[in-house]
Amino acid sequence: MEPIVLTQDNFSKEVLESDKPVLVDFWASWCGPCKMLSPVVDQVASESDAFKVCKLNVDDVSDIAVEYKVMSIPTLIVFKDGKEAKRSVGVVSKEDILAML
User: Fold this and answer.
1) Active-site residue 34, yes or no?
2) pLDDT tens digits, residue range 16-72?
3) Tally of structural domains, the chain
4) How far apart are CA 41 and CA 54, in angstroms?
5) Range of the domain at 50
6) Which one is catalytic: 6, 22, 31, 65?
7) Taking CA atoms, which of 4, 16, 30, 77 is between 20 and 30 Å from 23?
């Protein structure tokens, strides 16, 4: 499955109201480490239906990035039951991402 592109309009429905854990990749097109992490996040998205994988471009949806205090990118946040459960900053391995979920 492809990661879901998050916007101001669908964030609440896709992330906060989800009945599954949700991995959100906070990224930007100009960010080198984000480009390195992106294919790994895409792989994770195809691993299982037990969780959702979403991407949020911090330049397009900066309000949400500010709300969750995302200061550096790439930042990965796992949401469970509408609340932040885990967070990692920087490039991490596929195994580390799956362990977060």
Assistant:
1) yes
2) 999 999 999 999 999 999 999 999 999 999 988 899 999 999 999 999 999 999 999
3) 1
4) 9
5) 4-100
6) 31
7) 30
